[in-house]
Fold this sequence. Notes:
Strand content: under 5%
Radius of gyration: 23 Å
Amino acid sequence: xxxxGVPPGEGRVAAEAVEAVFREERGLLLASLVRRFGDLDxxxxxxxxxxEAALRHWPAEGVPARPGAWLLTTARRRAVDRLRRxxxxxxxxxxxxxxxxxxxxxxxxxxxxxxGELPDDRLQLFxxxxxxxxxxxxxxxxxLRCLAGLTTPEVARAFLVPTAxxxxxxxxxxxxxxxxxxPFRVPGPDELPERLPGVLQxxxxxxxxxxxxxxxxxxxxLDxxxxxxxxARILHRLLPAERESAGLLALLLLVHARRDARTxxxxxxxxxxxxxxxxxxxxxxxxxxxxxxxxxxxxxxxPYGVQAAIAALHDEAADVAATDWPQIxxxxxxxxxxxxxxxxxxxxxxxxxxxxxxxxxxxxxxxxAGEPRLRGYPPYVVARGDLLSRLGRDGEAAEAxxxxxxxxxxxxxxxxxxxxxxx
Length: 423
C-alpha cells in the first residue's frame, strides 16, 4: 500500500483532507465489515483501529489513491487477527453468519429481483438498525452513532436526553441485535413498507444534526446534511411508490436549499426574515417542489409530506411578509394530528405569531412551558425571547436570551445571543 498514493509534501495529507476521507469512508467501511463479519462491536473496533493506523501512516506516506480500500484492507486484517486469537468469539460469529445465510437462502428469488440490490452496504445496516425488535428510540440512536458518525453526546442532544441515558440505549441496542441474532440483510419487499418509517426517521435525524449542529464551532454540518440527502435519494429510488420517501427527500432539499444564506461572513446565524433569498438554491427548490406534489398526491398526506409543503411555502415567498402564514398554520394543524408533539406545537406557535401577532404566539408558547421535552430546549427559549422583544418586554426578553445562551451548543449561536443581549 505505501507508494501507491499521493507523495508527501503535496498538501494531500493536510488535516482537512484526512478528516474528509474519514467522514466519507467511515460509514461505508463499518457497514461493509458488519456484512462480512456479522458483528457490530467487532466492526466498530477494527474500524477505529484502521483509522488510527491511517493517522499514523498517511501524514508520512500520503493519502492513498484509494483510501477506502486501504482502510477496508487494514480493518479486515485486524478483524481476522482478533478472530484467530479468540476462538469462542469466532464460533459465535460463525453462528450469526450461518443465520444470515439461511435467511438469504429462504428468500424467494423473485423477491430478490423485485427489490433489486441496494446500491450501498450502508442501507443494509440502516434497515438492520431499524429492525422492529429494537425499541424505537434505540433504532435511531444506534444508526446515528454507527452510520452517521455522531458522538454519543451529539445523539443525546438530538433526543434531548442525558448523555449517560443515550450511551445505555446504544449498548442496549447492540446487545439486542447480538442476542436476538438479528441478521444483517435487506428486508424482503413485504417487510420494507413496515420498516420504512424507522429508516426515514433515522435519515431525518441525521439531517437535523447537519442543519443545526448540536455542538462545535459551526452552526451547520453540511457533510451530515448532504449525507442525509444522499441516503434519502437512495431510499426514494428503492421505493418510488412510497409517498413518504418522496416527502422526506422533498423536505430535506427545500430546507437545505437555504444553506448558503443561513450564516453570515463570520458563521453567525441569519434568521429567515433576514436571509438573502437570492442565495437560495433555486434548482434544488424546484426539485423539492416537484417531490411535494408527488408526496401529497394519491391519498392522505404523511408527516414528511406536510412538513415539505410548509417548507415549500417558505421557499416560494418573495419575503417574510409575502409568506402564506394562514396556510402554514393550517398545515401545522394537520401535522399536529399526524404527529402530536411539543416541538410541532412550538413551530405552530411561531407561525401563529406571524399570522396573528406576537401576543398570540407568546400565549401559545407559555401554554407549553410545562412540557418536559421543551425544558432546556434552546429553540423554545429563543422563540420566547424573540416574541417578548417584539412586545417591548425587554427585561423578560433579556432573561430568556441569557437562559438560551447557557443552553446554546455552538459558538455561532452563543455569539448571536450575546449580540441580542447587547441590543
